[in-house]
Amino acid sequence: MVSGHPHCCTRPLEKHTMSWETVIGLEIHTQLATRSKIFSGAPTRFGADPNTQACAIDLGLPGVLPVLNREAVRLALRFGRAIDAEIAERSVFARKNYFYPDLPKGYQISQYERPIVGRGRVEILLDDGAEKTIGVTRAHLEEDAGKSLHEDFHGLTGIDLNRAGTPLLEIVSEPDLRSPQEAVAYARKIHQIVRWIGISDGNMQEGSFRMDANVSVRPRGETRLGTRTEIKNINSFRFLERALVFEIERQIDVIEGGGRIVQETRLYDAERDETRSMRTKEEANDYRYFPDPDLLPLVIDGDFLAAATADLPELPDVRRARFERDHGLSPYDAGLLTASRELADYFEAVAARCGDAKLAANWINGELAAALNKAGLTIEASPLGSEGLAGLLARIADGTLSGKLAKQVFEAIWAGEGDADAVIEAKGLRQISDAGTIEPLIDAIIAANPTQVEQYRAGKEKLFGFFVGQVMKETQGKANPQQVNEILRRRLAP
Ligand code: ADP
Ligand code: MG
């Protein structure tokens, strides 16, 4: 959606934020946009019939061997570069052992001690307009698990292994986030980046972007971290915020009531708007990590890294700053217009064509964003292309349309009634900017309303609006408002 304003607020943290400080770190799993799995040639397409996209390797049959997907590596490197991270020349795949029905091998191939992407950072924008740097601890490659389906089978669980082996990049933040709002701003930022550089479709409904939130509280001034809980598998920014608000209040209540926080994994239940304990937290040693003997260490040579990152697009922060500088946009407008690369491209195309970047920004963030939202469309699917909008804005810029008429024309274009010029012609919506037409009209209105004229001249200035209204009524709203004001002032002067 276009109006991706970075600060979506559900309800403020009600409790004790004076005496308690919140600490949050996020682990984000983003599916990489490869056509085949990370260790097999099976397709990754979403929505296929259950178990039609899982091959012997994804099923973990004996005797098979994984082969690393080069494209998944390339995409991970692009992300590393985009967050200015250290990139490991040599990283290692490890087996993370656990038993679960949707993991038939009994282990997940992941990276543990030596991830491909090391320390990096992103900037987030806070509510007061300040920027804050959030550290990224690491980002590692791993395979996704299958899915357990509980809904369609009475008393049974279905297992769909289509997702097994889909490449994931797990992006782990430092515990640098200090409020649910900061956590949301950070998560949105990562979401923006992975889509921007084309490494993931970021589709949250389809599970391409899932978040685990680690959260603890501590008395203000305390430097040690409190005991944390981890809320698993959150798939929307709104739920992320709500789950954190609930969990922070719960933790404060427990501690203030004399209790202790247990390190555990919790689930957020959106229907009841609460988190519930799922299991006590595993420790790393529960997983018996060890290097996967089936896979060689991953060695990145300079040429491969250079080729993978050479064509990275101008990044969102850089582009936002350029929009402010070159087009004179406010940080707020520039931020909205760089929510996605498609939107930023759209804006630049409209601005170049109509010659007025500020006007383009206002219309895209205003009228167009509202219309897209209402129709549930993103900019890529906009019925109004950049040429169409630029055509409309050009008629505002050259005085053919007032802002108000332009909105009528916009609606007609949106409804498929043709381009701006065709609609203006067909509906006769051209603004009247011709003094030779407006002056006689105003004179007639003045002559017809002697009482109001007298009162106005005697100091009842509010009546000016009455005269403007009369002119607009006579012209069906088509008179140029600036001209009407100017001529009226002149004619009404005592
Ligand atoms: P694990 O190996 O159990 O997943 P990590 O140490 O890798 O744990 O941390 C996972 C996430 O939890 C990171 O994002 C980190 O910033 C965050 N985190 C760690 N300790 C705390 C804490 N006390 N409070 C809040 N977040 C924390
Ligand atoms: Mg973890």
Describe the structure.
Helix content is 39%, strand content 18%. The protein is elongated and about 95 Å long. The longest helix is centred in the middle third of the chain and has 20 residues, at 237-256. It has helices spanning 56-59, 70-82, 180-196, 237-256, 302-309, 316-327, 331-337, 341-354, 357-375, 386-397, 403-414, 420-427, 435-448, 450-457, 464-474, 481-492; strands spanning 20-31, 90-91, 93-97, 107-111, 120-125, 131-143, 147-149, 158-160, 167-173, 209-219, 229-234, 264-269, 274-280, 290-291, 298-299. The strands form 4 sheets. Strands 5-6-9-1-10-11-12-13 form an 8-stranded mixed sheet. It has a 3-stranded antiparallel sheet with strand order 4-3-14, with no helix packed on it. The protein is an alpha+beta fold and 494 residues long. It has 16 helices and 15 strands. α4 (237-256) links the parallel β11 (229-234) and β12 (264-269). It binds adenosine-5'-diphosphate and magnesium ion (MG). Residues 23-27, 172-175, 214-216, 225-226, 228, 284 line the site of adenosine-5'-diphosphate (ADP).
